[in-house]
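Notebook B, p. 112. Complex prediction, attempt 2.
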Amino acid sequence: MYHNFAEVKIALSSGKSVLDIVEDYLQNINQNKDLNAFLEVFEDSVRQQAAAVDLKIKAGNAGKLAGLVVGIKDNICFKGHKVSASSKILEGFESLYTATALQRLIDEDAVVIGRLNCDEFAMGSSNENSAFGPVLNPINRKTVPGGSSGGSAAAVAAHLCTVALGSDTGGSIRQPASFTGTFGIKPTYGRISRYGLIAYASSFDQIGAFSNSLEDNALVTEIMAGSDNFDSTASSKPVGNYFPEKEIGKKRIAYIQESFETEGINPEVKNRMLEIIDKLKSEGHVVEPVSFPYLEYMVPTYYVLTTAEASSNLSRFDGVHYGHRAANAKGVEATYKESRTEGFGPEVLRRIMAGTFVLSHGYYDAYYTKGQKVRRVLQNKTKEIFNDFDFILTPTTPSSAFELNAVSDPIQMYLQDIFTVHANLTGNPAISLPFGKTTENMPFGIQVMAKPFEEKALYDFSSYLEKITL
Amino acid sequence: MEITEEIVDHIAHLARLEFKGEAKNAIRQDLSRIIQFMDKLSEIDTENVEPLIFMSDEVNVLREDVAEETLTQAEALKNAPKKDSDYFRIPKVLDK
């Protein structure tokens, strides 16, 4: 079992081939089938990929990621392989091209081992909204791994791949990272191309990585980042080197006062936050509470805007060009209506309906435009905090993983994302660090948010925090 | 606001979805609660605030318009639920 890329590299240098390493991972996947983390293991394809990388290693021209085994969330396209967004509407669909982010990893000789379960169209916080069944949390199989990238988080936590890709629209990487004790980043909006990511809410979505080490996380993020001819919202800002360095100067760190007063926050999470704050202070950093009086408005704003964008993005699933078509529909309109209603699951239907409502005549200004204005207010307030501070520290989630079927109310489920939606609303990068544990030995994450495009500073600070808190 | 059955029918039609019987009642209740949750936004003063529409700072990302074949016809038809050699097939539109 390989815990991270460093261990894979040790195995390679001691004589193992990439194919041997892939076989070890395949065996571990086989022993953990009950997790339901993989929707499909690309057994043949990954062996071929590994054999090709082995030849390159022999020839002495292998890339930086030779030996790295990556799992992909089932909303990231990989040419010639199936992708379904964990939805029946896309069952059997095969990608015609490869996502830019993934292509860049492949170009550095990473191999792709399979596609990972998630909430349908990345809508959910527990992975219970998958059309192909829930994923179990490998830390405690009675609990959920979080969502929507639940399969990615579970696979990394159980060492079924070296790193996994997920996508984060409101917390879908960071919340499951928190629940599974892994590292998970949502990069700055526009840092990584979204080409080949099945869209949920285009002004929020970002691809990001799960890993068991900060170094692995920084390495794959650095390789995926950068401009792309196929996504004009991808930033042309230079990327640079993200390798985390533990030595940093004195920093100014803000924590959000209201986050401690959130209803339902686990006292152990709160205490761990206070411990870390004290530790940072004792090391000579400035750590101060700031007021962010909009905490309770963030999740509602997120839902106005993301459901609107989702209703628009998901209009492409019409039963004509690809995806599920209802069997006996008569005429065009019935084909659309019956195919879509049969193909989408309940949470996706709810969000399409809510999004169509906020965009409809008579309600557009009161909801959608209002939401965009509130988004500006939130961004301005966040910029104001970052004028005085380098980082904002919050818990990633109010608590550790909950049990399967424990949260049935949609609104209660939405509130899972109370600390994570902030970074998606404002575009900032944020990372969840596995630096907390309850007395029952369940992990929870500490979230650090940085200024836009300061991924390097975020990794450096995370590495420093790891050093002083562990 | 109250979400009536008429609103559900109207929105469902716009979204090209359909809800009948118990499913319609369930979506009406869910939608009412979600809209009520969203109504919280009205508490924030946004007088003189410009809506935030674009999250990317990139402006006018331009490139030469070069013709290339990114997808062949066969690839484009590959995932179609029904097709013939050249076209997507859909159910008959006009019923005689």
